[in-house]
Protein backbone atom coordinates (compact mmCIF):
# COMPACT_ATOMS: atom_id res chain seq x y z
CA UNK A 1 0.00 0.00 0.00
CA UNK A 2 1.60 3.24 -1.21
CA UNK A 3 0.27 5.88 1.20
CA UNK A 4 3.04 8.49 0.88
CA UNK A 5 2.62 10.89 -2.03
CA UNK A 6 5.61 12.55 -3.73
CA UNK A 7 4.78 15.82 -1.93
CA UNK A 8 4.71 14.17 1.52
CA UNK A 9 7.90 12.32 0.59
CA UNK A 10 9.51 15.69 -0.11
CA UNK A 11 8.61 16.94 3.37
CA UNK A 12 10.08 13.75 4.82
CA UNK A 13 13.25 14.26 2.77
CA UNK A 14 13.75 17.73 4.26
CA UNK A 15 13.03 16.35 7.73
CA UNK A 16 15.71 13.70 7.10
CA UNK A 17 18.21 16.42 6.16
CA UNK A 18 17.50 18.28 9.42
CA UNK A 19 17.76 15.09 11.47
CA UNK A 20 21.17 14.32 9.96
CA UNK A 21 22.28 17.92 10.62
CA UNK A 22 21.08 17.95 14.23
CA UNK A 23 22.06 14.41 15.27
CA UNK A 24 25.77 15.03 15.92
CA UNK A 25 25.02 17.79 18.42
CA UNK A 26 21.85 16.39 19.97
CA UNK A 27 23.17 12.84 20.29
CA UNK A 28 26.84 13.64 20.93
CA UNK A 29 28.06 11.54 18.03
CA UNK A 30 31.76 10.77 17.72
CA UNK A 31 33.92 12.38 15.06
CA UNK A 32 33.49 9.80 12.28
CA UNK A 33 29.77 9.27 12.79
CA UNK A 34 29.23 13.05 13.04
CA UNK A 35 31.14 13.82 9.84
CA UNK A 36 29.17 11.08 8.12
CA UNK A 37 25.87 12.54 9.37
CA UNK A 38 26.77 16.02 8.07
CA UNK A 39 27.85 14.52 4.75
CA UNK A 40 24.64 12.52 4.44
CA UNK A 41 22.60 15.67 5.14
CA UNK A 42 24.31 17.43 2.23
CA UNK A 43 23.95 14.44 -0.12
CA UNK A 44 20.31 13.91 0.83
CA UNK A 45 19.58 17.60 0.23
CA UNK A 46 21.30 17.53 -3.16
CA UNK A 47 19.40 14.42 -4.27
CA UNK A 48 16.13 15.96 -3.08
CA UNK A 49 16.72 19.24 -4.91
CA UNK A 50 17.84 17.43 -8.07
CA UNK A 51 14.85 15.06 -8.19
CA UNK A 52 11.87 15.39 -10.51
CA UNK A 53 9.11 15.76 -7.94
CA UNK A 54 7.34 18.69 -6.23
CA UNK A 55 10.37 19.83 -4.21
CA UNK A 56 12.94 19.32 -6.95
CA UNK A 57 14.60 22.49 -8.17
CA UNK A 58 16.77 21.13 -10.99
CA UNK A 59 14.73 17.95 -11.73
CA UNK A 60 17.62 15.94 -13.15
CA UNK A 61 16.87 12.70 -11.29
CA UNK A 62 13.62 10.89 -12.14
CA UNK A 63 11.57 10.28 -8.99
CA UNK A 64 11.74 6.53 -9.60
CA UNK A 65 15.55 6.74 -9.55
CA UNK A 66 15.29 8.80 -6.34
CA UNK A 67 13.43 5.79 -4.94
CA UNK A 68 16.12 3.37 -6.05
CA UNK A 69 18.78 5.54 -4.41
CA UNK A 70 16.86 5.34 -1.15
CA UNK A 71 16.41 1.58 -1.55
CA UNK A 72 20.21 1.31 -1.54
CA UNK A 73 20.84 3.92 1.16
CA UNK A 74 18.48 2.38 3.76
CA UNK A 75 20.28 -0.97 4.07
CA UNK A 76 23.65 0.75 3.76
CA UNK A 77 22.84 2.98 6.75
CA UNK A 78 22.12 -0.14 8.81
CA UNK A 79 25.48 -1.64 7.81
CA UNK A 80 27.61 1.52 8.10
CA UNK A 81 28.37 1.35 11.84
CA UNK A 82 29.75 -2.15 11.31
CA UNK A 83 31.55 -1.37 8.07
CA UNK A 84 33.20 1.77 9.45
CA UNK A 85 33.93 0.27 12.87
CA UNK A 86 31.86 2.49 15.12
CA UNK A 87 29.34 -0.18 16.11
CA UNK A 88 30.58 0.00 19.71
CA UNK A 89 29.44 3.66 19.81
CA UNK A 90 25.95 2.63 20.92
CA UNK A 91 24.14 5.91 20.27
CA UNK A 92 25.65 6.31 16.79
CA UNK A 93 25.01 2.66 15.88
CA UNK A 94 21.38 2.89 16.97
CA UNK A 95 20.91 6.23 15.19
CA UNK A 96 22.17 4.85 11.86
CA UNK A 97 20.16 1.64 12.21
CA UNK A 98 17.01 3.65 13.03
CA UNK A 99 17.57 6.01 10.09
CA UNK A 100 18.14 3.05 7.78
CA UNK A 101 14.94 1.35 8.90
CA UNK A 102 13.03 4.63 8.58
CA UNK A 103 14.28 5.23 5.03
CA UNK A 104 13.40 1.65 4.07
CA UNK A 105 9.86 2.05 5.47
CA UNK A 106 9.33 5.42 3.78
CA UNK A 107 10.55 3.86 0.53
CA UNK A 108 8.13 0.96 0.84
CA UNK A 109 5.22 3.31 1.53
CA UNK A 110 6.01 5.95 -1.13
CA UNK A 111 4.22 5.99 -4.46
CA UNK A 112 7.19 6.69 -6.77
CA UNK A 113 4.91 6.26 -9.81
CA UNK A 114 2.27 8.80 -8.74
CA UNK A 115 1.27 11.20 -11.46
CA UNK A 116 -1.57 13.66 -11.77
CA UNK A 117 -3.87 13.50 -14.78
CA UNK A 118 -1.92 16.31 -16.48
CA UNK A 119 1.23 14.19 -16.47
CA UNK A 120 2.91 16.03 -13.61
CA UNK A 121 3.80 14.38 -10.34
CA UNK A 122 1.42 15.20 -7.50
Entry summary:
The protein has four helices and two strands; from the N terminus they run ααββαα. With 122 residues, the protein is mainly α.
Description of the molecule:
The protein has 122 residues and is mainly alpha-helical. The chain has one domain. It has helices spanning 6-27, 31-49, 63-83, 90-109, and strands at 51-52, 61-62. A two-stranded parallel sheet has the order 1-2. The two termini are 17 Å apart. The model has no long low-confidence stretch (mean pLDDT 93).
- Please provide the count of β strands: 2
Mind describing the biggest β-sheet? 2 strands, parallel
End-to-end Cα distance, whole Å, is 17 Å
The coarse silhouette is: globular
Number of domains: 1
| Alpha-beta classification | mainly alpha
Q: Over all CA atoms, what is the radius of gyration?
A: 15 Å
As a percent range, the share of strand residues is under 5%
Core attributes:
about 120 residues; mainly alpha; two-stranded parallel sheet; 2 strands; about 65% helix; globular
Secondary-structure topology with pairs:
Blueprint: H1 6-27, H2 31-49, E1 51-52, E2 61-62, H3 63-83, H4 90-109
Parallel strand pairs: 1-2
Helix pairs in contact: 1-2, 1-4, 3-4
Amino acid sequence: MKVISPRIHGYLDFLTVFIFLLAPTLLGLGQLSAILAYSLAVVHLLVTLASDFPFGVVKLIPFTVHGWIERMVGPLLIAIPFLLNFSTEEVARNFYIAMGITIILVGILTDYQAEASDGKIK
